[in-house]
Amino acid sequence: MDIALLVNLTSKAWCLKILALLHSGVPGRQAPLIAKTSATRSAFAASLAHLIQLGLLEKNPGHGHPLRPEFRLTAKGVEAAAMAYRVLEAAPDDDGFTIVKRSWTVPILAVTESPKRFSEIKTGLGSITDRALSKSLGLLEDRDWLRRDIDVSGRAPFPTYHAVNTGQDITRAVGLFF
Fold it and tell me: Which string of b and e fits 131-167 if b means at least 16 CB within 10 Å?
């Protein structure tokens, strides 16, 4: 998976949770998935449609009712679901999931496996704004998932960011997928 697909995948809050649940064996029908995610119906429907659009999920032909279809993972979806499951295992509590379901958390952690400057992170993610990146870096640093160090080896000192603790576990989970 390339970083653009990861950014696109995490743009909807419940996509990772839906994929992880399907990976763990929850039936691919809407009722059990909604019950396990505790998402609102509209947020769930948006995430489900997004996963279908990305080609990670498809309707299971011949199964389910036309108004209550059953879904299954595609070949590409099986890999993404395994990654999503590992990511959610790294942040198992509700507070951790609240951070993981934010749009930029997982992509930022994915590119900070080694110390990176702000501009390197921004270049690696492509479409992120300076403000969104700055806020996300601050949040991850406050959670102690990311460490900010000042590099004074050059002419002008500059900060670098590196995933640590739970952030490093998430980075490893995503790294196995790349």
Answer: ebbeebbebbeebebbbeeeeeeeeeeeebbbbbebb
